[in-house]
Amino acid sequence: MFVATLTLLALIASVAFYVYVERFSKILKHSGKLGGPRAYPLIGNGLLFAGKTPAEFLQTVGRLIQQYGKCFRIWLGTQMLIVITEPKDVEAILSSNKYIDKSIEYDFIRPWLGEGLLTSTGRKWHTHRKVITPTFHFKILEQFVEIFDQQSSTFVQVLAAHAKSGDTFDIFRPVTLCALDVICGSITNLVQIRLFNFLIRYEIFYRFSANRRKQLEALKVLHGYTDSVIKSRREELNRAAGSGKNTVVDENENELGIKKKMAFLDMLLQSKIDGQPLTDLEIREEVDTFMFEGHDTTTSAISFLLQNLAKHPAIQQKVFDEVRNVVGDDRTRPVTIAMLNDMHYLDLVIKETLRLYPSVPMFGRKMMEDAEINGKVFPAGSNTIILPFFLGRNPEFFPNPEKFDPERFNVETSAEKTNPYQYVPFSAGPRNCIGQKFAVAEIKSLVSKLLRNYEILPPVGRYDETFIAELILRPEKGIYVRLQPRVY
């Protein structure tokens, strides 16, 4: 019996090894046709990133794009990544329903987010996307503007001391002033370390590293917090159901029976798939995904936007004039979704900010089958990496790309004719960002409130502008500005 079992295991291992070698051979065959830097056995191009600081990773990728063009391959260990910055290639990947599997890099955040909307695929992704989409309907979004306004007022109060003193300070810090954000940041920092380290990209090595232990400690806090909130709310709803009282309806409807706010969590707790409610694990995965995608990305966008308003006072004045014209002179007046929709120039400023500083600087797809993309074969088993950071800075697509010019997005006056896949800060196609309207409304609410109270000034002295491309784009050394009370 023992010999038979051993023989069977050896046979399975041999078949698995044969399949791996066959697939790897096919990838190698197509690798040579794609071009790229010289790779070495086992480590691939890992030495290109060895010894580099996190800020230097992005610079290294930029140099490779300059040297090898809009489509090339790099090897990290035995994993092949196809880097694309050609809009036609980007469109072929993102617009298709065939290429919806996320790249191997997303495996690094699965211990945190599980199989939530960001990381799941196949039927689970389709069904959960269908369930969650109504959460971001414009009527629901309308109801969250009150929360945005309250958060913005708190933010303005937090900054009052800086405005009074006129000191130079890192505005990235107060934007992320939340203990939970600090823990989230520790997770994304660990992911960033894995992205370019050709050894700990492999789970077998990462499992025994000190970084893995740090990750487990942070996940214990995050998952514990989310689980406790879900449990508490589910028990509250169950008690209400047992007493015959519909707590959700009572809390979320006014005296005319019109729905008010329904929290994201309540919608998940009430949702069903194939007649069955979502499990606590499924709900936690979606709540953690929403927390990750909704906090860090918005923090990045707001911080870089404020930095550019400080650098460009004429643009800042134009934004303020628009906000004042829409909202009026009462600084305490709450904004509405209609007001936010009327801030058209601020829309252009947000778009220009995300062109230069996309909150998600890179994302990827895993090729589950051989695909011919504009005459090139992307083999099964490879990972395609799309880089909004470099798409937005290509002078071929955006003349004078380093210039901060919101008017380039003004379709009425701009002469620039763009392929929509040159600009993909929210991705595109079937797996585009489901919460992009939510994010833009939140950014508009906070920025408009800030400008109604303060002028944003450049810092005293010079500060380096270098970036860390984790899952989220971050400043390496902060974003420094000054504030002064606005008089009008």
TrEMBL record:
Keyword Iron assigned to the entry: answer is yes
Q: Which domain of life is it from?
A: Eukaryota
Spell out the InterPro entries in the cross-references: Cyt_P450 (IPR001128), Cyt_P450_CS (IPR017972), Cyt_P450_E_grp-I (IPR002401), Cyt_P450_sf (IPR036396), Cytochrome_P450_Monoox (IPR050196)
* Keyword hit for Cytoplasm: no
Q: Which Pfam families match?
A: p450
Keywords of the record, alphabetical order, are:
Heme, Iron, Metal-binding, Monooxygenase, Oxidoreductase
- GO-annotated molecular function: heme binding; iron ion binding; monooxygenase activity; oxidoreductase activity, acting on paired donors, with incorporation or reduction of molecular oxygen
Q: Which residues bind heme?
A: 433
Cofactor(s) needed, names only, are: heme
The similarity comment for this entry is:
Belongs to the cytochrome P450 family.
The protein depicted here goes by the name: Cytochrome P450
